[in-house]
Design goal:
Blueprint: E1 3-14, E2 20-27, E3 36-37, E4 40-42, H1 49-61, E5 63-77, E6 82-95, E7 102-109, H2 120-131
Parallel strand pairs: 1-6
Antiparallel strand pairs: 1-2, 1-4, 2-3, 2-7, 5-6
Length: 133
């Protein structure tokens, strides 16, 4: 089975009430169109996961981030491929999170994390994130 290596940014901020929130995006294309995920993308040959994540967030959201600590490495078998996803905490440095490839996006509080339909690999990370908010 083919393995696809990707990275995901878990962007944490505070809402107007001072509550921690996490940024989630809804896929706008492909087999998983409409599903919710943490933004990111494929690691290109010769890239470190951190460099790939910075590049992907700039390409997809026109936003510069700093990449923080690795939260987890998710290994997930989809029907036609194996996904290996490095998930990092990230903070916005500059930019306005312009949706170039996604249908929608939301900032979710701890209580709202279950309000979207996460893609199968991404949902495995939700409880870990909830415990760190």
């Amino acid at each position: 089975m083919k393995t696809i290596r990707v990275v995901a940014a878990i962007m944490k901020a505070e809402n107007e009430n001072g509550e921690p929130v996490i940024f989630a995006t809804q896929r706008g294309y492909g087999d998983f169109k409409g599903g919710w995920e943490f933004p990111g993308g494929k690691i290109e040959e010769g890239e470190t996961p951190q460099k790939a994540l910075k590049r992907e967030i700039m390409e997809e959201l026109d936003t510069e981030i700093t990449v923080g600590e690795l939260i987890d490495k998710i290994e997930y078998d989809y029907p036609t491929f194996h996904l290996s996803m490095d998930c990092f905490w990230a903070e916005i440095v500059s930019g306005n999170l312009v949706l170039k490839e996604h249908e929608a996006a939301k900032w979710l509080t701890k209580d709202q994390l279950d309000s979207v339909e996460w893609l199968p690999a991404d949902i495995t990370l939700v409880d870990t994130i909830r415990g760190n908010m």
